[in-house]
């Protein structure tokens, strides 16, 4: 599988570390209920199809990326810097 890093260009996935689902948003720490923290830490979807994931370009520019990948074919549909995705979420834009 090849991932197109926005900073370094197309690279082999061996240069990246996979973190997991990019969708969960951490509950507000000390004010979060135990149930909300449990759900955040342990409950994840396992979709067949398009899925947004966090990847770290460890052997390259060391950027965190949000990769939209089809879990059935491993085809990469979109790659964006995680910082840009987080900022658009904060502004209320569709991310």
Keywords:
95 residues; alpha+beta; Folate-binding fold; four-stranded antiparallel sheet; two-stranded antiparallel ribbon; 2 helices; 6 strands
Q: Compute the number of helices.
A: 2
The top-level CATH class is: Alpha Beta
Residue runs with pLDDT of under 50 for 5 or more positions: none
Can you give the helix content as a percent range? Answer: 10-25%
**Sheet with most strands: strand arrangement:** 3-4-5-6
Pfam families: SoxD
Organism: Methylobacterium marchantiae
Protein name: Sarcosine oxidase subunit delta
InterPro entries: SoxD (IPR006279), SoxD_sf (IPR038561)
Structure description:
This is Sarcosine oxidase subunit delta. Pfam families: SoxD. InterPro entries: SoxD (IPR006279), SoxD_sf (IPR038561). The chain has 95 residues and is of the alpha+beta class. It has one domain: Folate-binding fold (2-Layer Sandwich), CATH 3.30.2270.10. It contains 2 helices and 6 strands; from the N terminus they run E-E-E-H-E-E-E-H. Strands 3-4-5-6 form a 4-stranded antiparallel β-sheet. A two-stranded antiparallel sheet has the order 1-2. It starts with a strand and ends in a 5-residue tail after the last helix.
Quick synopsis:
The chain is α+β, with helices and mostly antiparallel strands and 95 residues long.
Task: Annotate the secondary structure layout.
Layout: E1 2-5, E2 9-12, E3 17-21, H1 34-42, E4 50-56, E5 64-70, E6 76-81, H2 82-90
